[in-house]
């Protein structure tokens, strides 16, 4: 029984956003739960030598066109951000603080927070590197934004993001989104269907 | 009415091979014909700064695993070649000589030749940079292999490959396979289904 999809994403990743909007419905249909893993691709790209997609000639033009096209196919809002890419360090730390929180009420808000941050960036045109934006998102979900901002400045939460990224790299993650199901990795928004077929068929 | 899928591929590309095995059935279902465009990604990578996928840390491991996995999903033979990647210059020139030939009987053998070359490399473990292998493939299809080897040494055929690659780059092609349907580009074996939905729905 597969019952867990490890979902690795970078808040600066358009395909991460699109997959994030769809992953829970697919997981539910597949009898799986989603475990959220915010990471920073900047650290990964130091190892792989990759550059942000949109900075590459030819590939960049296609990517920007495809972000919108893939969003339209799934009736998702998409506005390519004016500031792109970004390093969403504070938002990533905040997500981990929620996910790993000792308070179950806060833990339960993790998915809503992740969706709200992603939508703020890719749909509402907000600057999610700005602490006041993160605080506003938290506030809208009845999360104590002062406590959140204090928490993400602590060494423990800073370390948790570093460790999260190291573990992702150890697991072979090199792009966003990456879904890992029972050690089987699937990279890319365009692999969600293949992942679904893999789960329902038991693999091939 | 869309009636033409421009199919760009590099003979050294595993995903090009997998898509090549599937494109005609999809085209037939979609009421389209396939136009074959052999290219050399080496020339494209000089512009995009990309490296061969398998030479990239983390990404390479995933890619090699995924080539076989994606082949198995579609019941296709796949043996990762011992010599990889390669620059399949002669095979690409031969394909263009067939495709653009004044003899309709030779033109009609283009698709069979492309499939046979791809299978020689990715299924039979043959060295398709070797002229004797290309000649043998040609012979197996009742193509005059001596005429073919003479033709691909001519300046006209050499130029045709250079021009083909330049035109591909002008059309925005940066990877293999790329399918272009009515100016709409789809990159990757894993986008065949999306391309199919695009054609059948008239786009979105």
Automatic annotation (TrEMBL), chains A, B:
Q: Which domain of life is it from?
A: Bacteria
Q: Which PANTHER family match?
A: GLUTATHIONE S-TRANSFERASE KAPPA, GLUTATHIONE S-TRANSFERASE KAPPA 1
Q: Where is the DSBA-like thioredoxin domain?
A: 5-197
Annotated source species: Granulosicoccus antarcticus IMCC3135
Question: Carries keyword Hydrolase?
Answer: no
InterPro entries the UniProt entry points to: DSBA-like_thioredoxin_dom, GST_Kappa/NadH, HCCAis_GSTk, NahD-like, Thioredoxin-like_sf
Q: Per the UniProt entry, what are the Gene Ontology biological process annotations, in alphabetical order?
A: glutathione metabolic process; naphthalene catabolic process
Q: What is this protein called?
A: 2-hydroxychromene-2-carboxylate isomerase
- What does the UniProt keyword field contain? Isomerase
